[in-house]
């Protein structure tokens, strides 16, 4: 939904805000994925060490 909103902003001549919106959205997904991967890795290492 929010990616569509960013694209709509770009198509309606609000290019700067649309690009900023999409970049921020992408960064949130990247950092969320990295956090989840590291969290899962640390939890699996703790479980296997018992």
TrEMBL record:
The chain crosses the membrane at residues 15-38. Keywords: Membrane, Transmembrane, Transmembrane helix. InterPro entries: Integral_mb_put. It comes from the Bacteria. NCBIfam families: NF038396 family protein. This is NF038396 family protein.
């Amino acid at each position: 939904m929010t990616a569509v909103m960013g694209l709509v902003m770009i198509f309606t001549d609000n290019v700067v805000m649309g690009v900023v919106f999409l970049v921020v959205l992408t960064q949130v997904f990247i950092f969320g994925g990295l956090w989840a991967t590291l969290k899962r890795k640390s939890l699996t290492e703790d479980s296997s060490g018992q």
